[in-house]
């Protein structure tokens, strides 16, 4: 998945920029999601517009146990949010 595809999937799932979306909504297998998002997180140009967060377990309870938490560069995350300025990189 390239950056344009990530932005498109994110906006479709979030309904706009700046809204947290669970990483499973990107529609990729967990291992692939972790690999791709880790790579974007390591890229200085992209990282400035990317926010990863971990929601409380009560919020994640409705999701399958296998998809609640992802590990991105060694940190537990559940949600991604993109700033609208990420479009400058496309």
Short synopsis of the structure:
Helices cover 37% and strands 18% of the residues.
Keyword list:
three-stranded antiparallel beta sheet; two-stranded antiparallel ribbon; 90 residues; 4 helices; globular; alpha+beta; 18% strand; single chain; 5 strands
Could you characterize the architecture of this molecule?
The protein is of the alpha+beta class. It has one domain (3-89). Helix content is 37%, strand content 18%. The protein has four helices and five strands. The protein has helices at 3-14, 30-42, 44-47, 57-60; strands spanning 21-22, 50-53, 70-72, 75-77, 79-82. The strands form two sheets. Strands 1-5-2 form a three-stranded antiparallel β-sheet, with helices on one face. A two-stranded antiparallel ribbon has the order 3-4. Strand 3 (70-72) and strand 4 form a beta hairpin. 17% of the residues are buried.
State mean pLDDT (0 to 100 scale).
Answer: 94
**What string, H for helix and E for strand, traces the elements in order?**
HEHHEHEEE
Rg over CA atoms, rounded to whole Å, is 12 Å
Q: What sort of overall outline do the alpha carbons produce when their principal axes are compared?
A: globular
SS-based class: alpha+beta
When the domains are counted, the total is 1
Which residues form runs of ≥5 with pLDDT under 50? none
> Which range does the strand content fall in?
15-25%
The first-to-last residue Cα distance is 13 Å
The largest beta-sheet arranges its strands as: 1-5-2
